[in-house]
Records
---
Amino acid sequence: MADTLTLVSWGGAYQKSQIAAYSEPYQAMHPDLKIVWDESSAEAVAKLRAMNEAGNITWDLVDVVAADAIRLCDEGLAMEFDADELLLPATDGTPASEDFGDLLVSDCFIPQIVYSTTFGYRTDMVGDTPPTNICDVFDLEKYPGKRSLEKRPINNMEWALLCDGVAKADVYDVLETEEGQARALAKLDTIKDEVVWWSAGADTPQLLADGEVVMGSTYNGRLFSVIEEQKQPVAMLWDAQVFDLDGWIIPAGLPAEHQARVEDFVKFATDTQRLADQAKYISYGPARNSSAPLVGKHADLGIDMAPHMPTDPANATNTFLYNYTWWADYRDDLDAKFQAWLAQ
């Protein structure tokens, strides 16, 4: 087996949770192994395409969202696998394919977490009536000040259409049309001058902590960190939080010794206990059914983590289900259109 592993993730609080739950205990079992972390997941598709063209794959395991996993799988850049061969069964013997269930959305995708993209807001900058509705993000009169939004079309286009009167069930049908795309961008135009665009998950928490924005989108676990760990005057706006999946892909065509090490690590890092352990450090729901009952208290704060999960009933009264297969089909085209709109 290889004595070095290069793992690619997102940096920040999320990567720290992976290090604590997965790589540190694995390294303790394999003291001669060197684990290198790369924080390039946001650019994983482009970089893997380039590596493939150059015939030089330098990554061993890459953390990506489900839609990117589907794209990489379709392009032959991610390794296909049989879940029950690659992944361990649950502690009660339930096969991995059943334990992960519907979250195995691609033959190349190894699910880790259910997370959501949602909004945080400064409690000291919203007056006496804090925002409760996703469309408050678009209300500059009621809530003046800067917003932060991710520098990509995903989620922003959906929220824009919801707040332009499109029914939740019709969002992707509308977004499939030129008119629908123009409608979403027109709605975003109404706040464009007040938006700080972010690329890294840590950006919005920092902008909120610094008081540079009044509200902003990011991953719910990053907001948990700024609220509960940093004790900043920030609160969650769970309305229309967008559920998504995150997990690993193994790049196709790895040398045999690297693939063997990766598969051994993945077996360990995605077992029932390890996925539950990650939830001790960040408020993302584990992807295995068998892990959920093992989610307990935060490792350092000692608080019960269940109420901070995006899947908690109190937080999930109005969720939006991200359509990763739709985005796998339309992402490249809409990325180009969105970047052109940003440049206007």
Note: The beta strands are 4-8, 34-38, 61-65, 110-122, 147-150, 195-198, 215-219, 234-249, 285-286, 319-321.
---
Amino acid sequence: MGVVVLVTGVARHLGARFAAEVRRRPGVDLVVGVDVQPPGLPPEEPAGPAAPYRFHQLDLRRPVLSRVLAEHQVDTVVHLSVSATGLGSTNRSAVKESNVIGTMQLLGACQKAPGVRRLVVKSTTGVYGSAPRDPAVFSERMQPKDPPGGGFAKDAAEVEGYVRGFARRRPDVAVTVLRFANIVGPNADTPLSEYFALPVLPTVLGYDPRLQFVHEDDAVAVLCRAAGEPAPGTVNTGTFNVAGEGVLLLSQCARRLGRPMLPLLLPAVSWMAALARQTRLVDVSPEQLRLLTHGRVVDTARLRDTLGYRPAFSTPEAFADFAAAGGPGLLPPERLAAATDRLTALLGPEGAAPAGPSAGPSAGPSAGPPAVPNRPRRPRS
């Protein structure tokens, strides 16, 4: 790993965790944190020996990062400030400027810094989009049939385009792009975690999308793997999908959370999502609504075979840890299981109601209706 590591986005949970973890790595002399706002909590102090930490409060959209890179002689840059939500502002234009313009300024500063040798950029699997004509599984080489038309996914796609241009201009810099699935965990602070925190989950009628998740511990571990020197037999440059193995349906997620689902027509769900954004109750963007309609699954073979990292949490295990950290829903799974057991006991092993106390020995399953005496037929005229 580089001697001096600069981390953007340290005011967020993932950036703060990564900065604390990378300070414990051998060979790291200094970690420099950068963000537009100071962290809400003091930076976590690692146990045992750790590299010193310096924080610079600055806006990436302003060309002042070159001074920080030169002052600390940074050789590894980890860009984590590309996010779906902004710090201190919910204005969509401000978030887009922070993501795209901030990345352009960062890349410009890195291009002018001859000491920079490694660049790691956090992206999202949202660059593949979510559409009914999508393939069952996306690999890193695939292009979306319907590219994202706006929102965070489009920001990430533009950021990746600028990163590819930087890699061509600076072939001496090892560039890694990590496309993360939805990050979950006990402390995850993402728009999807806010959606799952609702007491009732609005869903699109007739759709049960497939979803993938990555645990926050795996996200930090993958970032550390990408920011360091590659292990023998592995390569940590290029583009990698990052997700836990396996998939979950949205209905399975709701049951594991104990949240009842409210299926609605797509126009009604879109109207509710727009109202929730205006009232700042929850940020359900149009791209997230498409994900909750059509779903998305990515191939992680390159993460395991090339980068050499196998996530410690599968998708179901990561979501289970996220669900355990939240409060019980209106329909806790254990209560549903108990109700199902009682209903099974009442219906009997074959699903038929047991006979009442007044039923005689002939009132079994083979007993038919009472016999009707035969009546003489009238002769036909």
Note: The radius of gyration is 27 Å.
---
Amino acid sequence: MLLSSSTAFQWRDIFTFIALMGCGAVCIEASRRLGMPAGVSRDLLSAWWLPVALLLPPVYALFAPIVLQILLQLRVRATVVYRRVFSSAAIGLAGCTASFVFHHLVDDPWALSRGSALPILYAVAAAVLFSLLNIALIAIAAHTADPESPWKEVLWDRESMRLDIVELCLGVTVSISCGVNLGLLLLALPPVVLLQRSLLHAQLQAAARTDAKTGLLNAAAWQREADTEIVRARRTGDTLALLIVDIDHFKRVNDAHGHLVGDQVLVGVAATLRGQLREYDVVGRFGGEEFVVLLPGADIDEARRVAERLRVRVGHMTIPVDETLVRVTISVGVALMSVHGDDLIDLLAAADLALYRAKELGRDRVCIPVVQPPPRPIADDTSP
């Protein structure tokens, strides 16, 4: 009420708001035609939210995300409503705060069109504030939903930072274009749509390579990357190890607590594996409760150490369920290139045999295949 009562509505502002929302609707329609990956995905809608926050009174910044989130829900992909509500609230609060700050620093926000350095600098600062607040609100919500997840995972990574910088630059550029002439949006719209389609295409490609439950590589993508690493190891003569990881008695978890808890266990084990491995190690979900890990440059001693570390870490992992904690253990089979096989099929077969032996010996352990000595040549009795 305070915002609306203190806002003098002008036709110029209303037309600008409608034009920017129209551009956002065009981008959303382009997303619908291309498709949008499930889960958390990135778009370039900030290119239209930011100009609303910079050029128009703060009340418009509250309503802009509501309009576009409704369109996303209806036209692109329906998801649980509370997520759309929270996204709208986070973006609206961040945009409204940035708008207040910018309007406090700049008497006439349309001065951006004159190209003066100070208003543009203030616009960039307000855009950074908008991004930081939005990220902070989303990170707090994500960490509240999963308190065990580290803050680093819910805040920023290098790729997200690049995308945020691109969005800020687009938002400020579109704001300046609007200030010069509202018709320039027709020139700004095609590049933004093209950039968004490129971004969504990359996200869809990444989604096709990953397992939906764990976020690790799926079996097909892991096999392609593993084949590439094996070819490289053959060429350079480097060592390479392969691990097959199996969750012990996983069926009991599903039978006792349900498949939703079983999915939480899969996610927890996947996160533990990823957190204990190097960036260039290749880890994926092989199917069911099995995971596969390729360790480039690892010899048999290092592979054993890594496998033992994974076993211990997973053994300490807990999944809270009602008033109890679910714990699981893993068994690991290890195979080394040039010792247990020279290609992916041989390595998988050797590691699988070692995994079978670990289960026979009682599970919750690491096993390595026994290397069979080469057969002795048969003596020719007919020779003199």
Note: Confidence is low (pLDDT under 50) at residues 380-384.
